[in-house]
Write a structure and sequence with these properties.
heterodimer, A: 5-stranded mixed beta sheet, 24 strands, globular, disordered N terminus, disordered C terminus, B: 336 residues, mainly alpha, 0% strand
Amino acid sequence: MTRPGQPGDIDGASRSTRPRATHATRGAHRNGSTPTLAGPWAGYDSGDGWDEMLDGATPRPACTGVMRYLGALGDELLERQQAAELAIRSMGVSFTVYSEAGNIDRAWPFDVIPRVISTTEWRRTSEGLLQRLAALNLFVDDLYGDAKVLDDGIVPREIIEASPNFREACVGARPAFGTWAHICGSDLVRDADGTVYVLEDNLRVPSGVSYMLENRQISKRVFADVFRDLDIHPIDGYPTRLRSTLAALSPRPGEPPVIVVLTPGIYNSAYFEHAFLAQQMGAHLVEGGDLVVDDDVVHMRTVGGLVRVDVVYRRVDDLFLDPEVFRPDSTLGVPGIMRAWRAGNVAIANAPGAGVADDKVVYAYVPELIRYYLGEDALIPNVETFVCLDDAQRSHVLANLEELVVKPANESGGYGLFMGPSSTEAQQEEMRDTIEADPRNWIAQPALALSTSPTLCDGQVAPRHIDLRPFVLSGAHPYVTNGGLTRVALREGSLIVNSSQGGGSKDTWIVDPDVVRLPDGPPPHAERATNRPSA
Amino acid sequence: MTARPDTADEPPTESDPEEVATMLLSRVAENIYWAGRYLERAEATARLVKTHTELYVDLPLSAGVGWAPLLVVTGSHDAYQAAYAHAREDEVVAFLVTDNSHTGSVVASIGQARSNLRATRAMLPRRTWEIVNELHHHVADTGHRAVDRRTRLSWNEDLIRRCHLVSGSINATMSRDDAFSFLEIGRMIERADMTTRVLDVQAGILMGDDGHLDPYADLTWMAVLSSVGAEQMFRRAMGGAVNGPDAVRFLLRDTSFPRSVEHCLIEVSRWLLELPHQERPMAGCAAVQRSLDAVELDALDADGLHDFVDELQVGFAELHELLTGTYFLSEELAAT
């Protein structure tokens, strides 16, 4: 399956016909009406980077309607932001931050200005994500099966042998549909030239989807007046899709499946999400102590006695899943659950061991894996990645540390990053030693100029860097969310979007640029009857 | 590539999950049961503070009504004495209403109800959770108005109203499933317990009085009824004048008043019937009901009433143990 245009050129059509506005042409709107960036938008300037909403002062095609609406709001935008924060508090949308002073339950940080993506772009991105997950699942299935990919030398054997996420206990297991990573959150970023890259694939216990759904609830509350007119694609199908993805894994087809969400408990940073998804799916939210394995069958303890469990959507890391097999000191897991899984009496999503593909070293090989398993070119490119285990690539990294971002292979949450461009010589020296001591554990990438999105900061709209985490379901009926969770680095110039490190979030609107046109006439908060185009 | 899926594809249909949704985890059941108790405790404590304040303001100084009885009713006398030397009005009220370190306070009870329901929010209608969550924020934000006598009554009245919003939301939107049963059983046991405590302490004082409260008997007995929100329903059921024996009988045995002990026990048995394996707790509930039916209320003096209330409270504690053994202790369940 080859596609026109270069891989990853997902905004290709519009880019080739519409060159980027230069400083000289900025402000010249296509159809003559020059929208002035006034009110909180006054002075908005995204500089030389790629801004998701505006090309100079001109809205990008899919953003025309949204910008007309937001611009007409003027200072009322600030009130909408306050309304959003109030809604978050009353809905109890929160996440947990660990600190020395104990665990703090923090209100979910949300920026009211949406991030807009055109349907055209999104269609191709979804294709690319499904392609990627198809290959990744084939890869994991292969690794725990015949491991042909290693015999054929596509991925160096020593990378897998040294992987902290390869699980001997999973070798030979045959999960349904050959699917190991049923739920994946891949992080997408856009560089200054407009190209979208996959930055990483989270195949262990990716989180954030509940915040994506809650963000939509919030923006529906605060932008109730415009939602219908902009024809924003709905996203609330996810819990139903997730439920059917999980239900299809039941080892007792024909019976109503008993599905549980296994959480580490109320003190986990993502507990809100675990509870949210259980509620949305009508599944049981369980902790390790609620489950018991008897005769290789998993049961949960209910007020009516033991009830057999068919599918476990686990939000507990592999190593804590079963003290019989992994960490013996784990109190979060279920003794014997791996026996039950291997016997085919219970499905676990994501399957134990799926994290072997969630390794930034393996990431470097994903385009090769797509070619190997699917015979296709990757539709969404990887960020250029240097694998430090490889001698030539390591030499390059060590010689160019000041220009690179160096990442540990198996950390998440944005921890352990080395940012070359802002590093001191002493830090570079230290990094050099660290890499040489354990090259398997490090990769390096060029520092990307992440795209920006207009974001409310202290009463003014300012450009802030963003990424996007869409969620991909694999199995009987693969599915990609309509958009995903947009995360935003709230500090000026910062590239760190993780909520645990001061990042915020935005609602993500998939909008059809050909359908959506708000008329030039009345501002959106005035009479709405004429707002719907008749054609 | 045949495996390439179509995103527009409809998910497969699946049989109705309703049967599954009614299976309640033991841990969740216990959480919900306690949430019911905490919510009831918060409302009852706020009402006690409000009623006692009204009585205190009405009675002359010579009547000698202090604040210690409130501590006795709520069973927090010992905890209070560990922190304070005297039962001063502002300190007692702060201790009972806003002191987060005192687990029986209104604010702490709401906090615990919220965190229990948060841990089990999948079982609760979403709006109900939001109302509880808002209540939690509300008491944290406005608790400073709960102590000052000028704002105390309106704050506590408002709190009671907000608690009713929670009950109303539960009643109007929650399915009558096992989770609902545990919530109700928790509320009813807590409520019956509170009613007996009010009787024990306040009625005990009145009945054992040497006569110096006689001139205010009408007022004080009415305060006893008000403490559990019974004054109006009592008047409708019993006519005008308030007297001790009638009030005691009403609070213990009236089958139609929702805060009488009898009514609470009827409700407990009603919701127990909906649960599996209810034989033992049902027997425990029936035992309390039997002693309530058997006692000769008219023959009780102050000491007799105190002993009888003790007997009832032991019965509630046993009922709680039976619920724990039957439903909450996962070890025992695993063995069945």
